[in-house]
Batch of 3 targets.
Target 1
Amino acid sequence: MKILLIAGITFLHVELLSQANSFLDRKKPVPIVQEQGVKKIFESVEKGVSSGSVPSFSGYLGPQVHVNIAGQNDGYFSANQTRAVLQNYFLALKPVSFIFSRFQEKGENPYATGRLVYVLKGNRESVQVYVSLALHDSKWVISQFNVY
Amino acid sequence: MASFQADLPSPIKWGFFVCMALAVLFFGIAFLEKERIESDWENIKEESTEEIEFAVTRAFRQKVDELLELAEKIARHSDVPDGLRGQAERTAVNAFEQLRRHLPDEEFTLDVVDPRGSIVAWAGRSITSTYENFVPRSPRDSFVVILQSGLHTFLSAGVASAGKDFYVVASRPLELQYPLSNRFVNRVSFAEELSAELNMEIWIALNRTSHVHIREETRYVLLRGFDGRTIGYVFYLPETLNSLAQKSDLRWAVWTNGALSVGLVFLGIVLWTLGRKTGSLWWRLILASALIWGVRVGWRLLAFPSTVVGGELFDATLYASPFYFGLTSSMGEVFLSTLALAFHITAIWYFLVKEKWEVARSEESAGKKPLLVIGVFGILLFFLWSVRGFAEAFRTFVFDSTLQYHDPSVIVPDLPVVAMHVCMFLLTISLLVELQVVLRLVKNVLVKTFSGNLPWWMSAAVVFVIVLAIFVWIDAPLHFPLYFPVLTFAIGIAIYEWAETVLHRSFGRGQWLWRVVPVFIIGSFVLSSPMLDSKLHDKERQQAELYAENLLRPVDSWLSYVLVEGLRTVWNQFPVVSLEPMADKKTSLAFSLWAQTLMSREGYNSALVLYDELGQELSRFAVGMTTFEQREILIRLFDGEEEVVHVSDRLVVGGTAQSYGIWSTMRNQSGRIIGSAALMLSANQRAIFHGQSSDILRAEGGLTFESSIRDIAVSEFQHGRLLYTTLDGWYRGMMVPDWIDGGIAEPARRFFWRNERIGPKEYEHVYAFVDGPQRRAVVVSLQSLDLRWHIFNLVKVFLVHAVILGVYGVLWFGMRMRVHQRPTIGFREKLVSAFGVLGLIPLLMLGYYNKQVAEERADESVRKTLSSDLDLVEQRILNLVMDEEDFYRGVNNDFCEAIAPELGVDFAVFRWSSLQSSSKPELYQSAILDSRLPGSVFANVVLQQKNFYLETESVGQVQYAVGYKPLYMHERLLGVLSIPALYRQKEIDEELAQRNAFVFGSYAFAFGLILLTSIVLANRLSRPLRELTSAAGEVGKGNLDVELKPLSSDEIGELTKTFNTMVQELKRSREELKRAERETAWKEMAKQVAHEIRNPLTPMRLSVQHLRQAFKDRVRSREAILQEVTKTIIEQIDTLTRIAAEFSNFARMPERKFERLELQSLLQESLALFRDMRGIEFRTKFSDTPVHLVADGDELRRVFINILRNSVQAMKKGGKISVETHLNGRQCVVTISDTGAGIPPEIQQKVFEPNFSTKTGGMGLGLAISQKAIQDLGGTISFTSEVGKGTTFEIVLPYE
């Protein structure tokens, strides 16, 4: 019993810092992204951005995403970092509305762009958002997320 | 409750309550503040407006005053004006040099102007070509003005000289106008300074306001010059009630959460103090775990300390990883989590060691053997899961961060990198400590259930290897190198054995932990370095794959988008920007718009051309595109439709280049055409997202792969042949390797890795393929790092561990000072320090000297290179130019751009003090480089006619060397030629970084060697002294069987021999003393026996004599007398018997029955005999930890009973008896106190002497026997007593 208790505590610690591909993660169902078309991904992004909720589309982030938030961050970040960076960005401003106004769904580098309206310190502002996808391991992933 | 109060130290109690009180206080203040804001809003608004106006005016005034002070100092209190008034060239040159010396830094500009506003001397970059419009007409002697020049807006202040024949104008940049921001551009912003100071959004409009977007609620503050003229506006959005209330809430929330967070820690300690006494070891472990992680999660939920500290440590762009509750959402959070983890695991280990937990003995667990074996396998399997988790954690430290762990340009890592190294250190420590727990369990099971001759660790290793094989089968592919768990296990066993050795030396409580820490630190370094290296290598490979993938991607969508967005930007900004005043509108207008487009930020070779409504070219700016290229693209563009992207391919040196173009008319709001714009972009295959334009024009951020320390080469195959390559050793046209065809046939695999040695270098190639008619394959080649880089990287990691070791050393030293009240540094440590310092000083001197020499050589090399390049360019120009007129007309930008690639060097030509032409005109057009010849260059080259002059200039944060040379034709000065080293700055920086890295690595390696040798030497030299010290200690404890072997024939050897002789003498003396003591003791004993025996014999004799007489005298009562005499004789015989028994007890050789017993239970049993005593109150206070020892239970019980009985007998009228136990290191202290009469001082010395007693009828042997029993157990017994107050006996016994 005591051994199991120590083992349990140890195991918990293993999982505390086991990030991707942890034993528990392996048991979770993996979203079948291949079946989501490009359009579906853009819909998820649109929904997520308009509500300021990154987890809505964070599953589609590629292993390296080019993030450019005007006046703030510009560079390549991992999927985890991208999630955190975008989460922090949306926390600071309160999105009011967002719709993709232009799409380029064909080709090997589909993209969509639209206007995000938000409220910051009581004032209504807007920025342009550009999202593009790329194929990675035969799956569409978000490779670029720019805010101008 | 009383116990709770008694147990908790005061600081903890107070800390908890103070924190809670503060939290409530801050919460209350926040509430009241909010109420106050709401009720007094109008007044607050007014006050706020006044404060803002005051702050803005004051800040602006400060800047103006600073410039005025500088200008005044030069104009009225220096020799500069005098120098300029002089006719001789020498005095003018001196004036220039003096002016240069007055420059506070490269940000400032100093211009000396005549009353017409013409510049006659200068230092710093040019602001304007003339101050004609700004020099005051009236007798005023100073002026303030704001000017736009290049990338910045400048604040200028001028002061007249004493004779008013000159004005000295001091300027500095106020605001950066364009989003172009990298290390070459000075990012300065008055608006941002004000925003930071006032904590609100501020923007500034200088000179014009028409293009500023002003909202209804915007307020402004005027910036005025001396004449009252408005020279600028500072706009701000005033706070609203909601925003101010939110700010207040946020501010007080930080304080409240801070107080709650600290209070949480105290609460944890309080709960621990309350809970630790109840329950078993396991309960305490669970409680400790829950409390540690409860505090950690609580801190996260309260956003502490991220809201207080902030900064890079909590910046997600540096590191972020998802985990529950956000425990790893930034570096700071990871640090706290790994700290909690390390603390938790160490606590588990500490408790297990302290409690000496072990598996039940083999005879009790025989039936459970199979379960125990399965348990061992299970534990080791779980440990391997921990190793997996450890490797995954390191993976996130590398992959989820943008930190450059092995930045070659820095020797000492910066704070974020150090913070991550500390996190890795804590994680590695946790792993090693966890392994100690695992090994303890495994050893327990193996030793208790299996017997054999093999050492336990060998059996454990065999089992571990089997478990590892099972794990590899379950979890393939592995997340860590296969050698890693084996190395970890080996290090774990070494640490375990070392820790056991330290434990057995019976150090005080907690001290053993201090002594094993350095071993853990070293173990952490050994384990974490290769793991970090492994993950960094994996990341580089991932980046290479990404790079290759980007190169393969067809460009149309992205580049088309870049162009279209660029056009959109021009549409939006042209009406605004075209109205701004610009010094050189012809290039500035196009540059201003270009700098705001996406293509400029991405660094593409691009161009923007603007036309007016009549179709005349208004302005043009181009980067990396020649005029010829632009013309070709424009011709094709204007043949096509507007707002449509046109694409064409061109074959260029090094590959193919695709050109993109788009054009459109621009209309105002009423629909009238106001002009048109054409955008062009050229990108060759190699750089798809980050084009070929130099770093200077690229914004910061972006792909950093090229800044890796490895050399990177790119190659492309098409149709089976190499199309282009930058790899030495491959050549254009070579065939694709055979195995690639097989690779292309595997559609699921996109990347293939191959290693290849080309000449002396080793490369890792990644091949990436794409389907298509061209059968393209891109190869990115990474050069393998040689040993020097590995050593450099290793040394940097070691530096961090050395600092941790140093911090630990300081803490340990402080602890020792606290315990010993004075610093104690061992002889060996002094020797190591002395050797270390002796070795380090010459190394440092040599390093410094080498650095100086290397820098001088680098400077000399740059000087020579620049000088020879200048000669080369001069020759070329003079060969091509016929006369002076040809020089001025023909040596233009195109000319320079044409010959620069041939000569392999970029250059610029100045005519008098202004730029005439350059091979990199965009850098001057964009005002990154100054179009005016520096003042000191003008003085030295033009006025003094020096043939070569080297100047160190700076642009932004970068310093670089520039060589200048006069150009003469027929002895007439045509101009000044300049070649900056800026364009090669990157190579120079890399070369310097590499040299620093190798030199540093070598020196660090040498120092490590010196340190190692010092330790070995110090050990050898100090060993005889340590042995002597240890032996002297043994002698002090009474062990005289010590004999040392002299290891040398020097003074130390002589000292050893003398010591041995002394010990022998001591031994002999002690033997003699013992013999004498024994004789004395026997004599005493015999005397005592004789005395004791005589006492009863006397009455016996008298009685018998009386009886004889009675019978002789035939006394009538002789029968009664007989009865009485026999009674007396029997009584005295009983007395003799008792005496004999007492002496027998005292003298007997102990035939004790040893058993393992629990001390506190024994005390309770002894106390139970006296509990019924009336009038006596018993109090007990025993330690938390049960105390076990091996002793004769009956004997020990008699000791306690003896003392308790003495106490009871000393309190005839009642009193209190307290019995307490507490632990002191490896000893248990039992105190028995009473409130009896006490022992008078004059007899205290004799209390333990045999046959001494204050009681009638007592033999006086009780305490003597007790003392002997305690001493035989290795303990001590002592007492303190005060007459009238009582006596306290203290018994100290060693325990298990």
Target 2
Amino acid sequence: MDDARGEILARVRAALADRPAPAAVVRDYERSRSVPDPVGLLVERVADYKAIVHRVAEAEVPERIAERLAARGVTTMAVPADVPGPWRAPGVTWLPDEPPLALAELDGVGGVLTGCAAAIAETGTIVLDAGAAQGRRMLSLVPDYHLCVVRADQVAVSVPEALARLEPVRPLTFISGPSATSDIELDRVEGVHGPRTLEVLVSE
Amino acid sequence: MGGRNPVTWLGTPSFPKAAHDALGDTQLRRNLRKATTTIRGKRASAVAELADWERLRAAGAAIKDDVLANLDTYLVRLEEAVTARGGVVHWARDAEEANRIVLDLVRAEGADEVVKVKSMATAEIGLNEALEAGGVRAVETDLAELIVQLGDDRPSHILVPAIHRNRAEIRDVFRRRMAEPPASDEPGDLAEAARRHLRRKFLATKVAISGANFAVADTGSVVVVESEGNGRMCLTLPETLITVMGLEKIVPSWPDLEVFLQLLPRSSTAERMNPYTSVWSGVTPGDGPRRFHLVLLDNGRTATLADRVGRQALRCIRCSACLNVCPVYERTGGQAYGSVYPGPIGAILAPQLVDDPHDEQAASLPYASSLCGACYEVCPVRINIPEVLTHLRGKVVEAKGKRTPEAVAMAAAAWMFADARRYEVAQKAGSLSRFLARDGRISHLPWPGSKWTSSRDVPAVPKESFRAWWRRNRG
Amino acid sequence: MTGPRVALFATCITDTVYPETAKAVLRLLERLGCEVDFPLAQTCCGQMHFNTGYHDHARPLAQAYAEVFAGYDYVVAPSGSCAGMVREIHPGLAGTGPAVERTYELSEFLVDVLGVTDVGAYFPHRVTYHPTCHSLRMLGVGDRPLALLRAVRGLELVELPQAEQCCGFGGTFALKNAETSTAMLADKMRCVQDTGAQVLTAGDNSCLMHIGGGLSRLRTGVRTVHLAEVLASTEEEPWAAATR
């Protein structure tokens, strides 16, 4: 094949023959913002996008997981192999992703339970980075119900603060509410291909 | 290599003629008015939440200008980073070359079907048609793209390609083409029908094709911003992922995304954050596709980059805010622009990508604007669209030469304005038009004045101009 | 005490088609203590040529403007569009200079330079105001015209729905894309009629010619009156409806 790479780079250099010298990037926007209650803001904003959200004491997390799953009538849950033991509430069949669950298995479970890497209060976003208690990306995608535990210390207020906490070379998924679309008359409706129910427990 | 750039659709008439048909479609006008009115209000409130919005816009524009000014450096850096993390980078000079690269990659996987995430770059190069010709079926998975694909239609909006269809029309398309049709025309039921229709495809297809919203040069991280989860399905379930990206989509480093992940969702869907954003860097063992190909697409971008005024169009992050506020777009819809890039941004981007001043249709696009400036006001990366429009009009005029009736009339007007005495003589001649008037107004003028008087009266030019009055009273 | 020395840049359309507007600006500025001149060498700012793509024809007009208006304290134009052309586009065509830098649209000049919002006007009609695109977005005149209108005695100001939407004029756009322009005009006229106003005012005669031409065709009875004529109108010398 002839050299597309060389030709494109040569075109770019020719196009820039006037040596444009754009102004320096000024970052005078707000990189951090302080709010009185970041967790409260996260809860409010997550709920805004039709996710179910609860503010819970850290010690109560296992109990609340059990309660939520019972309320939903879920009997099988996929889970990353490294979630804290107490999260696997009794009365539910837990399917750890080790060895990796087959796609068909994942498609058949009642839901998935994960932790997260960070959360953004201002935008109501949780971020997964395939790290501790999160597993691979498809785990939180294929099941129709995603229960996510966020610790208060993982909550950043603004987008810049959250990005500073994340490793870009890890596979990242930013989740803001359940799957949704604005494709019909530019009006948002929830529930397309991703999990149609997102439930978040914010522990502090 | 070479050939026609498919960014504009072959056979589309020039804008005024295409607009004529669209303006006659009252259903289309209603659908567009409803959708654009809804989104305008929402965007305004989403933007009003951020006190530093104008500073974010300025930073977004500056970052993109830096990328463009040093594009060769950043492209090479991105290539190195993607390669280091297990991806393969390809370079495509034009649509034909990009399509061939993708088709060859799909064939190498032995696949005859691929799933696709909504992507402007692949729409621009006509990838689906090229794959089809090569015996590969491309399944669009974004809801609006699916509506367009199943309806054998063309897109009319960057973000919501089926914006010209209302819920009842979408239901009818789905009823015709789906094994399990939707229960009603409620958006929730339509979304549910799309979910069922595509579920098996997602779980079984081995190759996916995506575009990219951003790519971080330093780390090789590619970003796709979406809503439905179809993007995540395509980006994580298949064994092979092929991403086609316009070569201007780069940001230098990870923190730059803190600007764009604020600007883009609020400008496009008017959300604080879109439901899903995926970021991946090359290949991650045990998580997602095992093979990743990144196709860097030129297709007219370097030609656009060479234009000192026009190059700012390459800052575009495809948010659609300019379409949603444009009074012309609201009346004509997107298909009248004859390109996958409609609206104000399309009017400056498509002609530059086509890069042929003698292409009549492309040359009509910079004139498809009243220069009202609403687009510039909302653009999250501060593209001065009116400035580029008038600049491109200059290029059109230059290409058409001095012999067109318009050029002759303009030269005559310029000659007249160049001298106040000549101008005054012309004013006096013009004031004779008052003899055509009834009750001070003229309702019929010969061509080209008839283009005005078809819908508006013209005031009769009064007997005495202001300057004549001034000379008489104050001179 | 003598007031500032102001050159009136009438603009070609107002000079030729709407002389009453220019007379109104003159009356108004003199009433407010300005010394007003109308340099007879002025013609056109070149906007039609520039916006249609004839940049080479616009350039000498920009150069001529700079020469004609160089020697004044201020240049005032009863047009957001032409003032915008001068301030935003002329520098790129013919460089900047005193004429460009001292050019103001009428409402800017009144509020920012003379520091007045109550200009002593009387206009006993129901009025709605259309913020023309270039006043609004190129110059950013904001609420200045509304502040001026609110201070007019006898004037009942009614809000125009979707005021910030373009009327569809756009210079040669109205001819090159006549049908789209007409569709935009139709919506603007409906909004104007919904207000029940007797008078539509704006800071640009070009846009008013467009909207007024449509309202006249439909025999709506709504009059289009330039902001300057509203502000120049007083009890002693009221606006005369026969002028337009």
Target 3
Amino acid sequence: MAVRTRSLFALAMLSGGFSLVSAALFVALDAVDVAFTEAAVGAGISTVLMLGTLALTSRYERAPAHKPWLPLFVVTVTGAALIYGTLDMPDFGDPNAPAMRHVMPEYLERIPHEIGVPNIVTAILASYRGYDTMGETAVVFTAGIGVVALLAALARRRRRGEEEES
Amino acid sequence: MQQGVSWEYLVGHANYWLFVLLMMTGLYIVVARGNFVKKVIGLNMFQSAVIMLYISMGKVAGGTAPIFPIHGEIDPATVYTNPLPHVLMLTAIVVGIATTSLALALIVRIREEYGTIEEQGIWEAEQEIAARERRQYGEVFGEGSQ
């Protein structure tokens, strides 16, 4: 439905609902930090941004001009390749999977006396991977500057355009 | 894989296959539809599928959320779900919203410049500009008769 609908407003709402459902999925998978980030960012901010964009542009999509067979073929081939890639993966929830046996036990052992923060995700994010998080804030800051630079003069340009027309 | 396909194998891998399906739906929207807002939503779906894939890789059967008890001793028998994918995917979500907002700002700017947010419409506008420039400068370059 989300693929075929041409009403962009419905699409924005569906994508917000999708974020909320995926947040519930993250809770089920024990990833509570990811779940509330997804609920706040995906279902909240992202939907607001979408609606703002729709208000500034248009609310309906034009009918597609060409047949969808080539994209369908490309997507099917890519999907088949990806599924072939998952055939060697460990089973879901397997405690002996390589991802669980590498550095994870060491983190669990060291965090209580090295950091002392009960939430392991917070401890890793803010302490062991602190530089990474700092780089992330730099990325967000840059994106914010980009948005401001693109939209700052929008109202002024619009006003000038209206004056020229009248 | 050598011992044939068992029921456990199918159930243990169904999560990856569902996420691949979701990912490909997003990719299809990006490739096949011409509206830019829709492309951004498709890209978001693709990204969510990747995030779900990583989070599901970190799940341990019978595990609990990776938070130690505040008071009291840590029970060594408790199984915690792998927190490392969670950390990485938190970063991915935040960077994702940053790129999404930048993309939406670009869409607003494109609409201002071209009056449309469709690929097809922008192509038509470009053709029009090219034709006008040919009319204007065609004589100088010696192809004015077109």
